Amino acid sequence: MTAGRLGLLGASVLAIALTSACTNERETITFVNDTIRTTRVDTVIRRDTIRFNEFRTFNQVERLGNPLVAEVLLEFKDHGFHDVGTPATDRANFTGRIVKFITGTAGRSQATATAIANTLLPDMITAQTDKAANTAGYLNIVFNANAYGGRRLQDDAVDISAGAVFGTLLDPNNASPGLATDNVPAFGGGPVPGSGFPYLANPNAPTP
């Protein structure tokens, strides 16, 4: 008989006490939820991970779709709220916050702020395979409603995002050129990936 205690990061995460008794292929598991004080007992095959996952509680602790949405456009106090959220409620929860940052901190127009917020929310990368391949590119959908929203390997997503918010990609007025790039070249200045599968670039030459 073994006893253990399982926990995940965060004070709000449920703690689960687990006791298991093993006999060859089968394992009887007792789950006790400390918060609502319920107990459930079941027997599963120890190597049957799909079946075993029915009894696990998974907690979303972070998410990232479009670069810089949480890290730059949302206040630090909202990061946790965003991390445990879902794309279905992103526009309702974060449109006002993003527009406030872009019009206030970045000093851009309401139209520019609204266009960026409508493109970045919901916070997930959209790739529309029914669109013309030559329209592919990160945030291209801002410039062309019939374009992809996805990212290409060669897209410097941080520079594109910063260029839209602070630079002249969308609006030439009241831009802040010094904030429109992270000054890191695409691929870190290393080899460029190939255009066909498996897209791997040639390795760097060894240092003598």
Describe the structure in your own words.
There is one protein chain. With 208 residues, the protein is α+β, with helices and mostly antiparallel strands. It folds into two domains: 54 residues, no CATH class; 119 residues, no CATH class. 25% of the residues lie in helices and 14% in strands. The protein contains seven helices and four strands; from the N terminus they run ββββααααααα. Strands 1-2-3-4 form a four-stranded antiparallel beta sheet. A hairpin with a 4-residue loop joins strand 3 and strand 4. The radius of gyration is 24 Å and the shape is globular. The N terminus is likely disordered.
Radius of gyration: 24 Å
Uncertain residue ranges: 1-25, 35-39
What share of residues are in beta strands? 5-15%
Overall geometric form: globular
SSE string: EEEEHHHHHHH
> pLDDT average, as an integer?
78
Number of domains: 2
Side by side, the strands of the main sheet go: 1-2-3-4
The structural class is alpha+beta
SS element count, helices: 7
Share of residues in helices: 25-40%
Biggest β-sheet, characterized? 4 strands, antiparallel
- Measure the end-to-end span: 58 Å
How many strand units? 4
